[in-house]
Amino acid sequence: MNSRIYSRLAVSNIKNNRKTYVPFIFTSILTVMMYYIIDALAGNDSIEITNVITVLRMGCGVMVVFSVIFLFYTNSFLIKRRKKEIAVYNILGMGKGHIGRMLTVETLIVGGISIAGGIAGGMAFGKLMHLLLIRIIHYDVGMEFHISVQSVSDTVILFAFIFFLTWFYNLFQIRLANPIELLRGGSAGEKEPKTKVILALIGVVTMAAGYYLAVSTKNPLEAINTFFVAVILVIIGTYALFLAGSIALLKLLRKQKKFYYKPNHFVSVSGMIYRMKQNAVGLANICILSTIVLVMISSTVSLYVGMDDVMAHQYPNDYQMTLYEASQEKIDKANKLIEEELDRGGLKKEGETACHYGTAVLISQGGNKFTTSENGTYSPRDLTELYVIPQEDYQKLENTSTSLKENEVIIYTTAENYGRDSIQIDGRKFQVTEELDDFVLEEKNQSRVAPGMYMIVANDEVAMQLDSLKSGLRYDIDFDMTGSDEEKAVVEEKIADRITEELPGTYFTSRQAGTESFFGFYGCLFFIGMYLGFMFLVATVLIIYYKQISEGLDDRERYVIMQKVGMDKREIRRAIRSQILIVFFLPLLFSILHIMVAFNVITKLLGIFGLFNTGLFVLCTVVTVLIFAAFYIIVFAITAREYYKIVN
Fold it and tell me: Does pTM top 0.85 for this prediction?
């Protein structure tokens, strides 16, 4: 057979199936473009912020996995819709080898257009994404944009491999089936499925287990592992409940005579029961993708918008100086250095807090017993972050007088009150003379990664008896400055330079320096969250669209027959609306339920990043859900109209 015939047939097939191929090609181009852009940004040598590079590379990895799964999934839908057409070619005399050559040309055309168009789009919009990233992370120094040859190569290799997989899968499907099976493959109906009690129970148990883990998690460190386990359980439960629960729901509706024996409900319910196995998988996919979009966007937006809250928690004062091996001579020298530079700049120190302290990680042994040794097994909920402060420094901080003996301590906890009259650390027992309700160095905070405990002891010697503090206490000076931002920046630079030269072993930072670093990390998380959220949203829309097209093609002949026996167009429209409404909004409702249940564990994860403003996360989540629901309804209206056009 002339090779030109294959090309003509391939082009003709794509045109004839444009209702499904055009969205696929458009989405493929978009996927290639988005991958090229994120790969080019991740490989940009002018980005010198380590956190930004790390997040971009993680985003690049997610895009690889997403691209493989998404394009392979949508291709499987396309080949299923083409089976009847391919069977006709086979019956008319084309061998499977000829059909394979035709599919090869089709794959080359679609893949070539997708890769070339995606790279061209990436080059066109890459500069815009580059500028957007700079704006978000507040990075103004020397970040240049250029067309990356390496990224072009990476993109071509990745997507050539993906289209090779789809081509191989299509050939495999054709090779396995005979012409009669192919002819029935696109339109074969299903027997009425049985209500799968065991599958339903599996769904209920796994969903309940995932929900329990999400709701019961109290420690942010536990949330890291718990979250992924809960996600896997909820995904399993979602698929199981949609497969078994949707069939049970439709059969329950069929038993409701007042509901079922109406033309619109009768047609929709009876039709969906026979195809619900295939339908349920699509609905579960939509639900999971919708949940991913909601979680990803709401959490990353919360982190970025809540930057001020994060910085206020991380940096209570504008400037922080920590002196290691802090002798009194070194402390006096540090204070003198600060005062000299403030005087030269015409500024004053204000809001100062200063104290000796030592830190240790305590492991609960039960009751009032703790150890700083990590021997044995323990869970994150057993951890407590201990801060030991000598009595003299505490008196200066709180402007109060105390008289502690060597075996006495004052306790303050950031989470729940300690509530005991003694504490034993490393075998040394102390009597708790007082428990504070508040403390100048830190407010109460239930979402802390590990609960904090401040323990005021009689003197330095008592503190040094703890194993982890024997290397010495540190001295911390936190303060603000008067004056304008420009004046503060000049003085800050002078102090930092002198500390480097005159006080080795001293750490000095400022809220401004921390803000730049945090903006780089959280800004990049926000960028990646919106970037990947958009891609998952596109995937959701395409799956909804293909589901509606598939349903329409399957239902067309049935509705034609019903029109011939007297069902008018108004009744058909009502039946279509009933069919779509019964199951179409189930994924949205389940995804909202998922994010509501996951709210607790997500807030704990946000606490690891320093965001403890639960109200802000609630607001961001509600706004995200409302916007997504409005978008979902718009997609529903558009795809429902396409469905009606097909069956009508």
Answer: no
